[in-house]
Amino acid sequence: MRKTKAGRLFLATCLGSFFFLILYFQNSSRSVVALGGARTNFTGKSRRSPLQTLLNNDQLEQSAVQATQLGRREMLEEVCRSHTRKRRVLTPEDLRHLVVDDEHGLLYCYVPKVACTNWKRVLMVLTGKGRYHEPLAIPANEAHVPGNLRTLSEYSAAEINRRLRSYLKFIFVREPFERLVSAYRNKFTRSYNTAFHKRYGTKIIRRHRLDPKRGSLERGDDVSFEEFVYYLVDPRTQQKEPFNEHWERVHSLCHPCLIHYDIVGKYETLAEDSRYVLKLAGVDSEVHFPTSAKTTRTTGDMAAKFFRDISPFYQKKLFNLYRMDFLLFNYSTPAYLKLM
Ligand SMILES: *[C@@H]1O[C@H](CO)[C@@H](O)[C@H](O)[C@H]1NC(C)=O
Ligand SMILES: *[C@@H]1O[C@H](CO)[C@@H](O)[C@H](O)[C@H]1NC(C)=O
Q: Is 104 in the pocket of ligand 2 (CB under 6 A)?
């Protein structure tokens, strides 16, 4: 008896969540979002929310940054419309990458290898209630400690929907193959990344190297880019478990066809786009996005060199795998690929 009651309650809760999430979709077209009088609730502060600021600015004259953003959003919507057949419903699991800033009304979907450490640092400053002042003073590993920032998946369905409707949602993306080569270099060519070597490297070598040496099999520390590509395009890989977030596609990490991002920032225009987000949030005088002086940054030329070792057959398979990220964010097919 108790069991069935609990079961019914559980079912009711599930249905409730389902209903809420569906509601978000029905109201999600930009014009329907009710912002006018509905003052959003940022812990009592009466200032305008970043989303209101964005929508109000859109009605006034447009700056170059705004025009660029509008173009990116329209492009994204168009690609979503023409490439996704059926809309599915969001689940809390889909929202694990959305970092919440309740103080300022921001939702940031983090994509590894796209300045996400610096964005997490900035959000720790913004949500830290005075605990942090300077983003770069926060150690990188601390920025990635799960408990230090809240993600949208931790909230109830009603709270999720309220935030999806009223917060400024933003994402930063990067040329997909540059991001991929950056992930490979960082996780497989640096001797300190032993956790990745053990977890993924050993598996890749076992499966994709013809005559592996014992030491390589044990340490997994000498995976070639070619072997990494074999691993990515092998259907078995994703059957067993989802891709690691460092090489998972933005499409799968941030669901840009289900969540309507207000700002699509790009790594290629990182400083400018970051400044714009901080300005919309009204905090551009309090916190500055760290400017990176990294000299080891992966560039397009570098990516081209890595792809020289990959046969056209595998280039094509890999391009198909990442195709949606190219299309959604208007990245052209790299000229160095041999897709014929
Ligand atoms: C405002 O936010 C606080 C804390 O998140 C919450 O307890 C309160 O119910 C909210 N008020 C309204 C009117 O939504
Ligand atoms: C897409 O990319 C092309 C080439 O880089 C550029 O000329 C165009 O303005 C971009 N379109 C949008 C909507 O961003």
A: no
